[in-house]
Structures are given as C-alpha cells and as structure tokens.
Amino acid sequence: MASPPLAVVNACTRHGRGGSPTAVVIDDATLTDDDRHAITRRTGTSHTAFIDTSTADAPMVRFFTSAGELTNCGHGIIAAQAVLLHRSGATEHHGSLRTTRRTFATTTIRRQNGIEVWFDQGVIALADYADATAGGIIAALDLQPADIAADIRVASPGTPRLLVPVRDHLTLLSMQPDFDRLATECRRLGYLGCFTYALSPTARTAAARMFAPAIGVNEDIANANSVGCLAAHLLDTSGNGEIEIHQGGTLRRPSSIFASATCTGSSIVARIGGMVDLGPPIDLSAPKP
What predicted TM-score, i.e. pTM, was given to this entire model? Predict the structure, then answer.
C-alpha cells in the first residue's frame, strides 16, 4: 500500500500552544478500511481524519480511532477544514464538509497565529440522566456522589454522552478513572463517554476532561462535540449558551474550544470553533491556484 498524503496538525490550540495532535489524510479510493485502521495505528494520534476531495464543494471526511470508525469527530472536522484551506492556498473559505451522516456548514480563516475554524454542529438532544445504576458510572469516574455539583445530563449531537458537572477544579484534576470499568459501563448504557467539567464563577469558561475508553480514547485532549453539547445544556438551564472550554491540562496539551448555542424553534443548535496550528511546513500534494 502506497502511503497517501498525510499531515499531523494541532487542533484547538490555546494561545498558539498545545492542541490535540490529529492526523489528516487525503483519502484514496484504493484504500480499504483495514488500510485506514493500519494508517491510524501508525500515526500515533488519538484520531485520524480521512478526506475524500473528489467533490470539491463538499468534501467527505471519515474519522478513525484505534478502536474503529467514528460517525463524527468535532476536532477532526476542525483539523480537516484547516488542512483543506492550506491546500487551497486561500485565506478564507465558507463552505461545507460531509460526514457519513450529515453535512456541516463551515467557516475557515487564516490568522497570524494559525487557522480559525467554525462549524455548525446541528441539533443537540438533551435528556435527564435517570439510570438506576448511575453509581457504576460515578464510581468508574473515581467520583463520590458529593463530588457532583448539579444534575448529570445526557446530550447527543448524534451520539449520546454524559455531561458530568463536578464541584470544583481540584476535583476535576484529581480524577483517576477506572478506564476498563468505565468502558464497560458506557458500552452497556450506550454512551460515547463522559464529559466532566467545572464551571468558572462567571459560567463563561470551564475546565473539562473527556473520558471515552469505550471508543479507544481514555482521555481526549479536545472534544469539540461535547463542548457544543455543554453550550446547549447551559442555554437550556441558565439561558447562557456561550462558553469557552479549556481541556488537555492533565495531558500537558492545553486546548481551547469555543461554542455558542441558540434556540431554533423547539430545538437547540450549536456552533463550535477552534484554532489549528499546522506545525512545520506541510505538503499534501495540492495544486495551488
């Protein structure tokens, strides 16, 4: 198998630092899914985005982790869009990106400190978490009931996950989940993972950690879709749908993700943004105009 054009970029950086290393591959129709899994394992990143550029106005992107294919990946969308802008040589682009389930409207702008990307996440479904065996998830997260600051919610932009508020930043930083147990509980209950967070006093920023061992990612440096879910939850419960989330501190990869949630009829939708650092000069074999 010939190696397709590939780059590793840092998605959702904070003040030009850190971010989630994300492999972006210009897909090849000759690749099989076994090939894509093999490429993903070799990159050493938690996620790999494969972009089919045969349809220029709305490229298709697929996402893989070491455990398998994902239907969606927020920071993968952000990384892919930054690479597409780089390949085009443009300074700004307003367009669309398709996944296996839907099409996302995107905005990508070249800045002095990187590439800024926003995408429309779509409708987010919210529900109360009422599972009778909630203690299993809480214990697997290394939390006690007293550590939970408010109601746990289920949020889904297509795949459900738990939003778990903890009482303070110290509690968040001290968590040491049992990943095997958490993976078992999440698979049993049908959750992607658990997005744990501690709001600042102003509720405009929060620190967060995302645990998703059920999909092969024990802890995510940046989880953009969960940030959009949190913005939707905050709009639903407090009327404030604007949030900046800091992740990655415990992994020494500081990241920032921005989200804005709004009501559309009876639904809540969110828009998500982040900065991308392309790192060293990359060449993904794109003809420049």
Answer: 0.92
